[in-house]
Amino acid sequence: MSAPGKRTPTSAMEVIADGRVPAILAELRGLGSARNRAGMARYGIDVTHAFGVPVDALRKIARRLGTSHELARSLWATGNHEARLLACFVDDPDAVTAAQLEAWAADFDSWDVCDQATTSLFDRTPHAWATARAWTTRDEAWVKRGGFALIAGLANHDRTAPDGAFLRLLPLIERGAFDDRNFVKKAVNWALRNVGKRNLALHAAAIARAERILAAARRRAGGDRGGDAAT
Fold first, then answer.
1. For residue 222, what pLDDT band results from cuts at 50, 70 and 90?
2. pTM above 0.85?
3. Helix, strand, or coil (residue 126)
4. Whether residues 130 and 182 fall in one domain
């Protein structure tokens, strides 16, 4: 059995692309603890490949390292949990490709990695809006959660987006509300709340959509599945 934090690298060539990676991994190992790993596990985080480093400590390291797309790719390729979170904090959004979004999403194995990737990095890339729309219709649990987390991130960070862009996402949020998987449903709620927090007009639209969802849920509970499709 491998030691905590160890995983077969995604690509050995990527791992050695940035020479800082071994020292960073050693630092992360030193900052981790069994107590933190146990705490992470209690919150439903997969700690199989984690050292147990607090996110605040990772953000401090990210500020010290600065922005680096090459380093981010190398950190992600290690497969270590904290290294992947750190990758989300140091990557350059303008350098991230749509293919990278798909590749990283395929590696999601825990809600915190999904959420940090989508709301600390992906939502700031040029591909954020198209990816959010596409992923909310996918079947894979973590990818679908990522789509709604992206909406939550865009609602929080994209200050120039018009209201219409978010209004067009509300039907996707409504459809997602009936996914039975808890991690998906939580992200749907997160997305709707964040859209509603942008301004009074979107708040009213989010409330109206929430009422539609509640009414449809009541009909479903009563055995009437008609008329509850989002439009």
1. confident
2. yes
3. coil
4. yes
CA distance 117 to 104: 8
- Given 91, 108, 133, the domain boundary residue is 91
Residue-wise pLDDT tens digits, 31-85: 999 999 999 999 999 999 999 999 999 999 999 999 999 999 999 999 999 999 9
| In a shared domain, residues 108 and 217 | yes
CA gap 18, 78 in Å, rounded: 12
Residue 154 to residue 124: CA distance in whole angstroms? 8
Measure CA 24 to chain center: 23
Mean pLDDT taken over the chain? 91
Give the Å distances, CA to CA, from 63 to 27, 28, 87, 173: 15, 15, 12, 34
Is residue 109 helix, strand or coil?
coil
Among 213, 122, 120, 225, residue whose Cα is nearest residue 173: 213
Cβ atoms within 10 Å of 163's Cβ, excluding its own: 13
The residue segments making up the domain with residue 209 are: 98-231
φ, ψ of residue 25 to 5 degrees: the values are -65, -40
Nearest-CA neighbor of 169 among 180, 57, 158?
158
Question: Do 30 and 103 fall into the same domain?
Answer: no
Query: Could you give the number of structural domains in the chain?
Result: 2
Among 21, 131, 116, which Cα is nearest to 73's?
Answer: 21
CA distance 122 to 148: 12
